[in-house]
Amino acid sequence: MEKPYSIEQAKSALYGILKEFADFCDSHRLRYYLAYGTMLGAVRHKGFIPWDDDIDVMMPEKDFLKLKRLYRSSRYSIDLCYNDPTILLAMGRMSDTTTFGINGRRHTPGLAIDIYLMYGSPKGEDAVDEHIRLIKKYTDLGLSYKKWGNGLYHRYLLPESNFLLRISRHYYQKRVEEYQKYSIEEGDYIFITTDRRRYKREYFEKRVKKVFIDREFYVPAGWHECLTIRYQDYMKLPPEEDRKIRHLSTRFYDKEPAFQEIEEKGYIQLATSQG
After folding, report:
1. Domains of the chain: which residue ranges?
2. CA-to-CA dists, residue 105 to 101, 218, 220, angstroms
3. Class for domain 7-118+195-253, per CATH?
4. Structure pTM?
5. pLDDT in tens, 23-44
């Protein structure tokens, strides 16, 4: 079998996906922003955080759905992960379909950038607090059942559709439905899937550009406030012992010619939804 992608090769491939994503969004007037560690990387390092190995962006759900409807490519695909029973996250992805991953004995989706979806909020602080409480409740329940279900899967090789994971998916879907109650135009706050924090709407009303590697991408005009909410003193580097690559458990390959050999060795195929 060919060697898996090195960290630097994987980063280069992810950067290629990001450029494809940004070019399409810009040409079709779809709003997006660099998010989380990728936004921090642009501000603090003008590129990847040296010990990071993924790319995060965010966009309003309605812009994402338009992206998914319009985008066509023989290489890249746009996927809604909350329609994918193997991922259990309320987010989207843009994936390089010429690659795939192996995690343990599982065949997983290939290299992809994560697209976090943005929503509005109810009106009034009490209603916002209740919204956050429900998001936290459904997230915690979903995570708990996912942990127990994955434990059964890895220990006894029970199907990925075992009853604990079905319960987990139920609570993740409840969380998605709670986000979707409020369109991006509603309320004084913006909520981002997988994030329980509230961000003021004004942070996102305008966009500015920041350099990431060798070109500029959009970030919120309130990037300082967003990074402070997420990371507090974001320009301070973490302790050296915390500067570790997080996703080393998955190895990525080109589909040809390694793909046939992987299937012949009996790795468990995880189906991914294109819905």
Report:
1. 7-118+195-253, 125-167
2. 10, 38, 40
3. alpha beta
4. 0.86
5. 999 999 999 999 999 999 999 9
